[in-house]
Amino acid sequence: MNEFPDDEQLFSLYRTLLTIRYTEEQLARSFLAGLVHGACHTYVGEEAVATGVCAHLRRDDSVFSTHRGHGHALAKGVPPREVIAELFGRETGCSRGRGGSMHLFSPEIGMMGTSGIVGPCILQAAGAGFSAKLLGTNRVGTAFFGDGAVNNGAFHEGLNLAAIYQLPVLFVCENNLYATEIAFSYASKNPSVASRAQAYNMPGIEVDGNDVLAVYRAAGEAVRRARAGEGPTLIECKTYRTRAHAEGMRDAGYRTVEEIESWKQRDPIKMFRERLTTRNAAVVSVLDAIEAQVRATVSEAAVFAEKSPYPDGNTAATHIYSMEG
Amino acid sequence: MREMTFSQATHEALSDAMAEDPTIFVVGEGIGPRGGNFNTTVGLYEKYGPMRLCDTPICERGFIGLCTGAAMTGARPVVDFMFIDFILDGMGELINQTAKMQYMSSGRLRMPMLLRGCIGIGNSAATHHSGSYYSIFTHIPGFRVALPSNPADAKGLLASALKTDDPVIFLEHKILLSQKGLVPEGRYETPFGQASVVREGTDLTVVALTVMVKRALDIAGQLASEGISAEIIDPRTVAPLDMDTILASVNKTGRVLILDETFMPCGIGAEIAAQVVDRAFDDLDAPIRRLNGEHVPTPYSPSLERAIVPDNDRIVREIRALLAE
Questions:
Q1: Which of A124, A216, A249, B3 is 20–30 Å from B11 (CA)?
Q2: What is the ipTM of this complex?
Q3: What angle do CA A223, A216, A68 make, to 5 degrees?
């Protein structure tokens, strides 16, 4: 898996990175404008992880995500308009206004939910792997989770179950160094998440989570292994969120301005663009065109979301059961 | 019709359903070659193998989460807890994920998941193997809760549970497991939300739950010789709860006794009583009475264990007092 992906794939990665970035920036502005009614945890700085992993997933593969999950939903193919409308609480949102930021669902394309609870996604991805093996569908389950999840029992139980049943699952840890404001170095005596894979006798790979091609290669091999029946893989992506834990929250007292700045220098989109243009200066115009397209898509999405109706209050109690009543 | 035990009846329903539906799989501790602590899966491992009769490590949270993910992706999991007390390790998964998944996804995901286990006080099982907890699950939107009291209903309710796309908590009282009754041959489903009038009468209504149904029937038989005519209602499921059948009975008798082995405060009896008062106050000729087990953890010693569950003498005294009002 050392080959450079073809141009089409490279441009597709670039498009996804930008879709996430611009959508998050739009949401941050909309939050300030009062259009986002609840919490909003942005993925700015971590875009390369979802982008590199989801590039290998089929529409019918499942993704189980976190409270910082807009990027996972977008990379899995949920259109920006459905994500933004959901955060605006509108009927046209991907969860029809029932979820908001932390409950983004689009099961038709394998987006099985962002979550307000840390940990369950790990177990549910193992379950998707189980059903794939049981039903012979050759699908893959993927869990995205932060460093905050790896000291939770769900991590141990989920990885152990996936290992003993040899399930087709990717466990993708986005180690952004802080669980809200608690440093990973405080919360774990072992500084490496990837090394914990040894405890379950599965491969544990550490990659630069700001390098989309590194993530892409690691995920490609993990997906290949999963589909070949070789079992689960743990991938630790070292990355960083460059905005506050949530919009409207303070972002001081637990990390330094210098640290934030140093990671901004390693911005995944900037690094990827430099790499592409260094390799072939002729792609600049293509990349610029992609940027313009994505900007337009996200702007239109925000307008669409703001114009969309709120759900009818009379429908608040529908969808609790398969058979209503 | 043949005579068979409660456990044999549920085994027949599970076996029939597994033959028909290849997406059903069972997880639990010792449900594979061992055939289940309560013989719930005897012989099925030999038929269906280790994926469909999947022994687990002791990690209830883990396999509840795994099954939730499997149910989201096309499988129909059956979680066999042995003792339902063990479900408590996975309550976060169940309440935040399993029960809410259909709603969070605006009805685009279904949650066909059966969770079964043995409940109730008896056999000096002591406090970690004697819980019932159905009032807790009934309180949560998203669950169906079944409480079969005899083998025929147990078979029919389990068959229904393996057809519905809602998560079902299926609770089997340990005293009932070896009790025999007539069970119809062939496949049939007992619908949820339909109480059974197990004995007709005119003087008072006894709403009895799970193990209390048989006790109420025995007592009603004795009292009939004194000219006391008790109507006995077995709700069979408490979520949904068939209040119409209870209210029709109250309309006839004007007097209600609710017999429930589990705790009184915030229990299912409180809910039934409140609904009777709300909807049929004018039908009542006397205050509603509730007879419950004591609000204590379950003790071990037979003398203590006996003391916390209302005995037949106490039930008879309560009935006489109710009729005297």
A1: A124
A2: 0.96
A3: 90
